From TrEMBL:
<dbReference type="GO" id="GO:0061542">
    <property type="term" value="F:3-demethylubiquinol 3-O-methyltransferase activity"/>
</dbReference>
<dbReference type="GO" id="GO:0010420">
    <property type="term" value="F:polyprenyldihydroxybenzoate methyltransferase activity"/>
</dbReference>
<dbReference type="Pfam" id="PF13489">
    <property type="entry name" value="Methyltransf_23"/>
</dbReference>
<keyword id="KW-0808">Transferase</keyword>
<feature type="region of interest" description="Disordered">
    <location>
        <begin position="31"/>
        <end position="50"/>
    </location>
</feature>
<dbReference type="GO" id="GO:0005739">
    <property type="term" value="C:mitochondrion"/>
</dbReference>
<dbReference type="InterPro" id="IPR029063">
    <property type="entry name" value="SAM-dependent_MTases_sf"/>
</dbReference>
<feature type="compositionally biased region" description="Low complexity">
    <location>
        <begin position="31"/>
        <end position="44"/>
    </location>
</feature>
<keyword id="KW-0489">Methyltransferase</keyword>
<dbReference type="GO" id="GO:0032259">
    <property type="term" value="P:methylation"/>
</dbReference>
<protein>
    <recommendedName>
        <fullName>Methyltransferase type 11 domain-containing protein</fullName>
    </recommendedName>
</protein>
<keyword id="KW-0949">S-adenosyl-L-methionine</keyword>
<keyword id="KW-0831">Ubiquinone biosynthesis</keyword>
<dbReference type="InterPro" id="IPR010233">
    <property type="entry name" value="UbiG_MeTrfase"/>
</dbReference>
Length: 209
């Protein structure tokens, strides 16, 4: 869609695989490491294409390198449930967002149902996922992420909380939203649940702030 995009991963091999996949997409300009996302498109012959740059780094190191308020949109998909310090990770992601920008996270809730689906069934029984991929104690519930952003303060001079008061445990729709992600096997696709369907957040879910 013409956006300048930076993809990061702490694994060098993951970056190599992602770069290989992206190079096969004619709609992308996979920018070399010698160019930055701010380089004019004509410099790489990619006018009209979305520009994609990959870096082998962590979000903490990216924050130290780029500084706060560096990105309009920050996405962290299926990462939070693998980190050792989720609060520090969320803090780094939040700091990277420009004022008025957006943060998208997806992760897995912590409860017996999610354990059954993602570890017992997917890893141990069906072997759809490499055993040991997930650690149940690292799963994070939606309410815990919401609580973090209630306490988190914006980087501007006002230092306002990212999420104000809750109504029945739910933030105002203009401040944040959580939605469950459900796999529909007969259609072989993932679907985003409707607002207010709390039961759908018992396993995989998405949060926007």
């Amino acid at each position: 869609m013409g956006a300048n995009t930076l993809g990061i991963d702490a694994s060098e091999s993951n970056i190599a695989i992602a770069s290989l996949h992206a190079s096969a997409d004619p709609g992308l300009d996979v920018t070399s490491s010698s160019l930055s996302l701010s380089t004019p498109p004509e410099s790489s012959g990619a006018k009209g294409k979305g520009r994609l740059l990959y870096e082998n780094t962590s979000v903490e190191d990216l924050l130290a390198q780029r500084g706060p308020a560096s990105f309009d949109v920050v996405c962290s998909m299926e990462v939070l449930e693998h980190v050792d310090n989720p609060r520090a990770f969320l803090d780094s992601c939040a700091q990277l967002v420009k004022p008025g920008g957006h943060l998208f996270l997806s992760t897995i809730a912590r409860n017996p149902f999610s354990y059954f689906l993602t570890i017992f069934a997917a890893e141990k029984l069906l072997r759809l996922v490499e055993p040991g991929t997930h650690t149940y104690t690292k799963y994070v519930n939606p309410s815990e992420v919401i609580s973090f952003f209630q306490a988190y303060r914006s980087q501007d001079e006002h230092g306002t909380p990212w999420i104000g008061r809750l109504a029945n445990g739910v933030p105002a729709r203009i401040e944040a939203e959580t939605r469950g992600m459900i796999y529909v096997p007969w259609d072989a696709e993932w679907r985003l649940s409707r607002r207010g369907e709390g039961w759908s957040e018992y396993c995989n879910y998405l949060i926007w702030k």
